[in-house]
Amino acid sequence: NCPFSNVGCTTRATVNEINKHLEIESFQHQTFLMGEIVQLRTENNNLKHSLESTNQSLHEELQLVKGINKDLLKIVEKLQKQLTENE
């Protein structure tokens, strides 16, 4: 198999033929590599956007939890005060 088979080349050649194939098809191999680079960049950008979105959601949820914790602390303090007053 051609060393560029993992990026799209389907040529099968013997060891003796592969060097000639690599010389003749260098432009095609570069085209395969460019296609792979474009695909990887697109995937990378999509992953970045997904990560940013997840990060934003987590930040919003964290703020909500912090607010709930503050409210709960106020309730606990109020209950402790009531218990102290009732003793």
Automatic annotation (TrEMBL):
Keywords: Receptor. It comes from the Eukaryota. This is TNF receptor associated factor-1.
